[in-house]
Amino acid sequence: MFRGRFLCYRAAMQASSLYLHIPFCSRKCAYCDFAVRVLQHEQQVSRYIEHLALELAAMAPFASSLKTLYIGGGTPSVLTVPQIEALQGLLEQFFDLSHLQEWTLEVNPEHAVPAALAAWKNAGVNRISLGVQSFDDTLLQRCGRLHDREHIFQAVSRIRAAGFDNWSLDLMYALPEQTLEQWKDTLTQAIALAPAHISLYALEVHPRTLFGVQDIAAFSEDLAGDMYELACHSLQTAGFVHYEIANFCQPDCASQHNQVYWQTQPFVAVGVGAHGYVQGKRYENPADLGAYYRQCRTGAWPVLHTPVQPLAEAIEEFMFLGLRQLERGVFFSDFEQRFQRTIKACYGDRVLNVLQQELLQETVHGLRLSPQAVGLSNRVLAEFLEPLL
């Protein structure tokens, strides 16, 4: 009986967010493990958009009027102005954008040119995520990035000139041979630019990447921890709100779209390698471009044959992702509405034990990580495996 109520509730949830993946890049970075392709001619993008139109048409019924839209990659900023306009037309054809609150576009510094920025602005984009990674030219070259430090300053100037007030910087740490001083300089330069938002990413070396082939030595965990702590201290001192484990923002500038993920709300995802969550199903598109094109032509959409997420897995995800939100945490009312039982019923004395260790705080609304537990989050999250059902 309980499981049936759960499934019915999840099936009734309607998405109001869309993630769209553009896989093309001018060059593949040394650390990149995403579904990307090196762009060699414009026809690659045109063909991709033609197939994307088929998927957008098929997935539109799963989404109501959109509130958030995120175009990532890859490097979506490689699109030409006519391609931007074609994509805009498809989105307006299949989705209601009249209530859109946040439309984010990922941009590389070398592609932040006035004509493209103006076209995106005209399309409706109101938030830019700028892939900076580092302000150190040596590290940028080592990572295979096409921009240098000066390109970053030029890009920010152009983004502001185009009328974008809400823009974010992506920064990476624990890069090969990166020093604490280099990281400190990157943080100093990023803060000086006064973005609305900053996201941090620790390098992960994957086997099929250039760094993986080169067998890059594992970065010191202690040094990586020091870099993370330095970032937290520096950004909070500069007035940024540490609202998620890896994300910082100026007041009222948190990413609306990413909060959909952290609160395990449904979202439609389209494009090669994209992962979506609708009707209680976590589906994924093939990462191979040829397989994705065949899927679009045959209409064999993964969401149609993906099973509903198991209840225990859904509860674990809700806790793992929710507790990443350092200010909000997880709300008791959200959990009970979603699963028709309480957090304490699912985890028994484990919640009390973590509270007694002062790794969790109980608020009026729910649970959240305590400040001293941020660097120990994996230890805390391990307590929320295997709920009692």
Short recap of the structure:
The chain is α/β, with parallel strands linked by helices and 389 residues long.
**C-alpha end-to-end distance:** 13 Å
What is the spatial order of strands in the main beta sheet?
A: 9-10-8-7-6-5-4-1-11
Coarse morphology: globular
Classify the helix fraction into a percent range.
40-55%
Mean pLDDT: 93
Number of helices: 17
Number of strands: 16
Main pleated sheet: 9 strands, mixed
Ranges where pLDDT stays below 50 over 5 or more residues in a row are 1-12
Rg to the nearest angstrom? 21 Å
Topology summary:
Elements: H1 2-12, E1 15-22, E2 24-25, E3 37-38, H2 42-59, E4 63-73, H3 81-94, E5 102-107, H4 114-123, E6 127-133, H5 137-142, H6 149-161, E7 167-173, H7 180-192, E8 197-202, H8 210-213, H9 221-237, E9 241-244, E10 247-249, H10 256-262, E11 268-270, E12 275-278, E13 281-284, H11 289-298, H12 302-305, H13 311-323, E14 330-331, H14 332-339, H15 343-347, H16 349-356, E15 360-362, E16 366-369, H17 377-381
Parallel strand pairs: 1-4, 1-11, 2-3, 4-5, 5-6, 6-7, 7-8
Antiparallel strand pairs: 8-10, 9-10, 12-13, 14-16, 15-16
Helix pairs in contact: 2-3, 3-4, 7-9
Output the keywords.
389 residues, alpha/beta, three-stranded antiparallel beta sheet, disordered N terminus
Describe this protein's structure.
- This protein has 389 residues and is an alpha/beta fold.
- 43% of the residues lie in helices and 20% in strands.
- It contains 17 helices and 16 strands.
- The chain has helices spanning 2-12, 42-59, 81-94, 114-123, 137-142, 149-161, 180-192, 210-213, 221-237, 256-262, 289-298, 302-305, 311-323, 332-339, 343-347, 349-356, 377-381; strands at 15-22, 24-25, 37-38, 63-73, 102-107, 127-133, 167-173, 197-202, 241-244, 247-249, 268-270, 275-278, 281-284, 330-331, 360-362, 366-369.
- The strands form 4 sheets. The protein has a 9-stranded mixed beta sheet, sandwiched between helices. It has a 3-stranded antiparallel beta sheet with strand order 14-16-15.
- β9 and β10 form a beta hairpin.
- The radius of gyration is 21 Å and the shape is globular.
- Mean pLDDT is 93; it is low at 1-12.
